[in-house]
Amino acid sequence: MKNFKFKINGIDYSVDINExxxxxxxxxxxxxxYNVTVDKEIRQPKHTTIVSSRPxxxxxxxxxxxxxxxxxxxxxxxxxxxxxxxxxxxxGTILDVFVxxxxxxxxxxTVVLLEAMKMENNIEADADGVVKSVxxxxxxxxxxxxxxIVIG
Length: 152
Fold this sequence. Notes:
0% of the residues lie in helices and 45% in strands. Strands 1-2-3-4 form a four-stranded antiparallel beta sheet, with no helix packed on it. The protein has a four-stranded antiparallel beta sheet with strand order 5-12-10-7, with no helix packed on it. It has a four-stranded antiparallel beta sheet with strand order 9-8-6-11, with no helix packed on it. Strand 1 and strand 2 (11-21) form a beta hairpin. It has 152 residues and is an all-beta fold. The protein has strands spanning 2-8, 11-21, 24-29, 32-37, 84-87, 92-97, 104-105, 110-116, 119-124, 129-134, 141-142, 147-151.
């Protein structure tokens, strides 16, 4: 289940997305259930979870919080590159973040644990490099395509 908070015309709404299947979405708005039909089918991308015999390292600062980079600057002009983005393959909730800014990562290394459709998904770096920014933290809700980590 994914939760969003909206403020529309000064009114707060809590929206829980319970199920997405094709063009049909089952959701609750402030506790009231609705079945919603959207104009296009919502793609659920295929993904692979690789299970390793070694656990992924857990890295945290002394305060126990994930070290986050400064807010991202305004988008750069087309053609400019600010690093490789590790994106969310589907909407979900961040259960854990295994890297901090400045960490060296290898392709295939698990960097984020994402819960989506009541399943845990290991999100892996798909390039070698140094973590330039961590854009999520435990408990955050993300959408498909959101940049979770930037590797430079």
